[in-house]
Amino acid sequence: MSERATGAVAxxxxxxTFSDIAVRAVFPRQPTVETSTIPAVIDCxxxxxxxxxxxxxxxxxxxxxSATLASLLESTxxxxxxxxxxxxLCLAARHFELGRIKRxxxxxQPLGQSRRWLARxxxxxxxxxMSSTTAAAREAARDDETAAVTSRLGAELSSLAIxxxxxxxxxxxxxxxxxxxxxxxxxxxxxxxxxxxxxxxERGALRRALAAFDDEGIxxxxxxxxxxxxxxxxxxxxxxxxxxxxxxxxxxxxxxxTHEGGTVRIFGSYPRATEPLK
Length: 278
What we know:
By secondary structure, the protein is α/β, with parallel strands linked by helices. It is built from 9 helices and 15 strands. The strands form 3 sheets. Strands 1, 2, 3, 4, 5 and 11 form a 6-stranded mixed sheet that branches. The protein is globular. Mean pLDDT is 92; it is low at 1-5.
């Protein structure tokens, strides 16, 4: 696919995944480009085959989505928006009988998000990771002894029965998605900025880095350490802060952070999501 698809939105499919649900919520009328992986979504936008991409970046139960964080590190794209979707997970099968289920399939994230429910209700079932919740639903549609952890939409698309609803271990389980493109968003006054930084490999370096934000009165809404690419036992810090990268106090903090001797890369500034979508 080499042609430019103006206005198209790329997402990791297939249809019925939570990524599909996110795209439908934000871009209900725009054409979509379905890919098989998160890196393929990023590549699709970089090549111009789609104008935007929608990818999951964080789950309230399982934490950061590794494939998205790694892809952002290697990409020049910017985050220009976010949305939060409440994740309601279903156990779906060809029938309603828990006792006949010997295998449960799903993407690793939903399996982790429903770990306690599965251990309690299906303690002897084998848990098998698959590429997506929709792929899991399709697998369950082929075998009476297999059930899928999926969305209601995924179950409906595969004509499965809903054996149990809301099986996620936390009622407020939610996934945060980001919209990526070639430019970030203009300042609105209700913004956040996503960035990654590293520090000098020495005592007190992280404390000094965090002081750059604290001294400017900037609230960190998220910080997560990840292994630094190509540097064994060193780490980078994915961080979200309140404010736009053009706000004077944010500019000062980022300049100071750079002067501390590490590296700083801004992934984008964009309006904060205020309420989760259902």
